[in-house]
Amino acid sequence: MIKTVIAIGTVLALAGCATITRGSKDVLIVESTPAGAQVQMSNGQTCDSTPCTFKLPRKSELNVLVQKQGCKPQQIRVTNKVANSGGAAMAGNVLVGGIIGAGVDASSGAMLDLVPNPVVANLECR
Rounded to an integer, what distance in angstroms lies between the CA atom of residue 71 and that of residue 74? Predict the structure, then answer.
């Protein structure tokens, strides 16, 4: 009986853990109009031709430079915010008593989403 209660408690605690359900990384999509622009991010990652995708920690904050020959370059700031499902997972941790899970979620950034996502650059071309 005690083993069953512990098993059920463990499952409930883990069900709300954003680190397990969402992971600590997110896919950032960068698009441009016109397509085919180069992307350079302040963390050093690049892409030769939009659309591009990058796998980044959810708690990232960086600048995205989108440029194409004959067009005015555009820089867009990417930050993060608490996601609806991330906040629900954190609340689940608190309600079920998963203090450790709440700490892990807070440190991993799993309850966050990158914003804006997708990054859309409308380039002014000559």
Answer: 9
**Intervals of the chain under pLDDT 70:** 4-22, 85-107
What the chain holds in terms of domains, given with CATH numbers, is: 2-125 (2.60.40)
Using CA atoms, how far apart are residues 112 and 57, in angstroms rounded to an integer?
Answer: 9
CA separation for the pair 120, 117 (Å, rounded): 8
Tell me how crowded residue 123 is: count the other CB atoms within 10 A of its CB.
18
Give the per-residue pLDDT at 86.
45
Amino acid identity of 25?
K
Q: What is the pLDDT of residue 102?
A: 58
* Residue 58 CB-density burial (10 A; 0-12 exposed, 13-18 middle, 19+ buried): buried
- Per-residue burial over 2-18, b = 16 or more CB atoms within 10 Å of its CB, e = otherwise: eeeeeeeeeeebbebbb
Burial class (CB in 10 A: 0-12, 13-18, 19+), 45: middle
- What's residue 72's pLDDT? 97
The residues, ordered by sequence, that sit 6+ positions from 22 with a Cβ below 8 Å of its Cβ are 58, 83, 85, 86, 89, 110, 111
